[in-house]
Amino acid sequence: MKMEKVNEILSQLTLEEKVKLVVGVGLPGLFGNPHSRVAGAAGETHPVPRVGLPAFVLADGPAGLRINPTRENDENTYYTTAFPVEIMLASTWNRELLEEVGKAMGEEVREYGVDVLLAPAMNIHRNPLCGRNFEYYSEDPVLSGEMASSFVKGVQSQGVGACIKHFVANNQETNRMVVDTIVSERALREIYLRGFEIAVKKSKPWSVMSAYNKLNGKYCSQNEWLLKKVLREEWGFEGFVMSDWYAGDNPVEQLKAGNDLIMPGKAYQVNTERRDEIEEIMEALKEGKLSEEVLDECVRNILKVLVNAPSFKNYRYSNKPDLEKHAKVAYEAGAEGVVLLRNEEALPLSENSKIALFGTGQIETIKGGTGSGDTHPRYAISILEGIKERGLNFDEELAKTYEDYIKKMRETEEYKPRRDSWGTIIKPKLPENFLSEKEIHKLAKKNDVAVIVISRISGEGYDRKPVKGDFYLSDDETDLIKTVSREFHEQGKKVIVLLNIGSPVEVVSWRDLVDGILLVWQAGQETGRIVADVLTGRINPSGKLPTTFPRDYSDVPSWTFPGEPKDNPQKVVYEEDIYVGYRYYDTFGVEPAYEFGYGLSYTTFEYSDLNVSFDGETLRVQYRIENTGGRAGKEVSQVYIKAPKGKIDKPFQELKAFHKTRLLNPGESEEVVLEIPVRDLASFNGEEWVVEAGEYEVRVGASSRNIKLKGTFSVGEERRFKP
User: Fold this and answer.
1) Catalytic residue of the set 60, 115, 244, 470
2) What is the per-residue pLDDT across 458-472, written as a single tens digit (0 to 9) for each?
3) Span 340-540: which CATH code?
4) Domain range 2-306, its CATH number among 3.50.40.10, 3.90.870.10, 3.40.190.10, 3.20.20.300
5) How does pLDDT run across 230-253, given as a tens digit for each residue?
6) Which of 343, 485, 629, 710 is deepest in the core (most CB within 10 A)?
7) InterPro entries attached here (predicted)?
């Protein structure tokens, strides 16, 4: 029925109308282009009213729908929910929760008149300095793929589309439009493509966005091997491929390679070397350089998806999504994404402890990163506001000192807020060591506990740097931690650090000075409430790291980041190959600061009763988790497989399955049963997937380095699978 409708529309289109359908209308609201009917949307397709085709609307992004909250000559508001950033969502390891977040976001997409959400972003954390790691899930493809699948299912359950991005190996912002990523086919298939493969097969996203970078010499948006052979033929993808905004350099090559929709259109508006794509494509058709069959195929791919979209069905959207309900979902998601990194009997705080709150981030709390992953919520609760609202006992005088300090500093030339190219207000980092030792000494006497906030922000278009004030703490931050710790410890009082960050920082040089470290990430609009509730134990942290915290930047395996030549990288070689993240640290015996999968709780869990069985097709792993502590909590358990030594070099172990328990009360337990298809055990040998014969070890852990149970199974004879 659907294909008949699509072919009927296709048969009525003129050549020029078809060409228009594969090119966007230009970036809405900029360069003199008209605004989208949904102001702030990232792109639109050309309408063809004659055959009943509306303009379809596409909008960002991974932490919430990004549209303008207000519109000219319109007193209505169009706020959306600011959810936790993706790295925090992945820290929940909770598929059901990701699906709930997807549903909430999908409802906002639909009710604000948008057809496709440009999310989730699922590039791998190859290097901790990538500026967009906050909006990617993990260094591991299985965790990324599972989180993305659940999120996509949630979004698409609302009758709108999701778009998984950026396909593929877009693991840095530096020179992202041109850099040539040189990577082996094995590393591509096992690490960088794998998460996308899981998401495509499990959740059937409407769309895939091709990446800016080149892949082994060819732009991703002009790479037929990637977009046709791998994505469509091997994985059976049935949606449409759109380019990242202004990606590639040749619209004709893009269409031939299987990039169906060229976005946002009018590339010449940002790049003087480009022409109008519609003219270029029309010319190629006339000159026989592009066949009408190829064009028809692209149009068909786009239409067979978009005939399901709200715009095609003339859906009457309300502009009134349930923001109250979605705020609760954002809170729940953040509550499960907080990671407790250190706890020397410091947390949760005892009833009515008086808190001295240090750090400008208590007021200028970072809700998320910048760029297309930014959001415009009705409100964003700062850490200080959350502590006030929850009625915690805190030093009000000290809070006032911080308020005055920030106000004064933000009026100076050096520290005044400025707008970046995205229109986001950027606030230069303020010095944190403005309180004298004497003042801190007084504060230590009259308060029960110190809480220090350390914040970081990064965003699209630039990478982070391995310098003080970014990957390392600045001298003023270190000074503050040292002085506060010394003064409070002299009074026998505890010191807690809150990391309000979007990607790892160095912790080893200072962590022993403090008693507790809470990684609260960037939790969106509810950040302050979540922080207050974790401090008091209303929330028991159950998040675990989706990415390794290295001891030092020099330990990171992706030493070629961000490519050569250093001052203007044109190519980046993935020398570390498959040894990304824990696969490197575990295989080569490098000690991390906090390993992949790590996270503490306010209670304790015991693992027992491991049962491993393998019938040649499916590996079944069964075990029990019991809450042996004094508080209700949830536990994320992880199943790693260690392969036997064979012809193919393999990492020491690889994550193959995971499970998050329900909320277990003290003394309660849960039976966990996980099934892993034999194909998931395979390595890529350059031509096909191979499961080598021999004895495999099953390692069930609370983290990649805290293995609680071990079992074995044997594969009698080698198995091979075509890609």
Assistant:
1) 244
2) 999 999 999 999 999
3) 3.40.50.1700
4) 3.20.20.300
5) 999 999 999 999 999 999 999 999
6) 485
7) Cellulose_deg_GH3, Fn3-like, GH, Glyco_hydro_3_AS, Glyco_hydro_3_C, Glyco_hydro_3_C_sf, Glyco_hydro_3_N, Glyco_hydro_3_N_sf
